[in-house]
Amino acid sequence: MLLVLGSGLPGQTRTDTLRFYFAIDKKNPKDIGAIGKIQNTDSVQEIRIIGYADFLHSNSYNQILSEKRAENIRDLLVEKYPGLREKITSCKGLGERFSKGDSVGGEQWWRRADVIVTKKKTLPGSPQKPMSKPADAEKENKTTHLEKLKSGETITLEGLSFIPGRHIVLPNSEPKLEELLDKLKEHADLKIQIQGHVCCTENGRDGLDLDTRKYELSVNRAKAVYQYLIKNGIDKDRLSYRGFGGTRPKVKETSPENEQVNRRVEIMVISGYEKEN
């Protein structure tokens, strides 16, 4: 997943990515329904549009194709929301630079255009409620303390955000890591697994990490938390990490709010507190 997999700075801006996919050699998207997700245009601060192409055809052909895809999405966006024209700060194509392979069918993932929407601080009102809940949602809501979880139970590290498309934790999220660190120091019997998740990927694949140029974003974000804990004195024998890509969404990705729910790091207790029967 390129450029945006997380939120912006909490309380200041939020970044959402809308994706539009194209058939081979086509300049017009298969489906434009995602445009409707913008909804409140007054909250939009900036829009960047980036077109891509896969490795089929020549570099020069694909560069032009990616630019045209971006431009067509821009025109469709402005047609629906004329007031957004002045908020579009860039519209460009990156050609086939991220796509590699030799399949005759190319790479559908890179036949796309991304609309990266930066929004102002969330306006008053309740966020959209999730469309569905995982089977253990009620259990998770009732277990608010890590040390009180049974083996196999998980909690989400709410408030932990990363630089979009990277595995670098945002500075304002460091208190959340410190909270986890303090909890592990306080309860030396706890052993945990750190689990990374992303949203909005095709067939549940992992996101693209811009630092490594590999599809391992969920793994690397979990690993970043793991390395932080070890660096600050937690025995590595108490820790493990794993990335699940987009294979375990908590809710249907029908809105930017729901997509954000699926961008997360969870902590699963391996051993520790056990409730009395």
Note the total helix count.
5
Secondary structure class reads alpha+beta
Total DSSP E strands: 10
How are helices and strands ordered from N to C? EEHEEHEHEEEHEHE
Q: How much helical structure, as a percent, in the residues?
A: 10-25%
How does CATH name the architecture of the largest domain? 2-Layer Sandwich
Q: Given the C-alpha coordinates, what overall shape results?
A: elongated
The tally of domains stands at 2
Largest sheet: 4 strands, mixed
CATH superfamily descriptor of the largest domain: OmpA-like domain
Low-confidence runs (pLDDT<50, min 5 residues)? Answer: 1-11, 123-144
Beta percentage is 15-25%
Kindly identify the CATH topology of the largest domain: 60s Ribosomal Protein L30, Chain: A
- What value does the Rg take, in angstroms? 20 Å
Lateral arrangement of strands in the main beta sheet: 1-4-2-3
CATH first level of the largest domain: which class?
Alpha Beta
Average of per-residue pLDDT values: 82
- For the record, give the distance between the C-alpha atoms at the N and C termini, rounded to a whole number: 44 Å
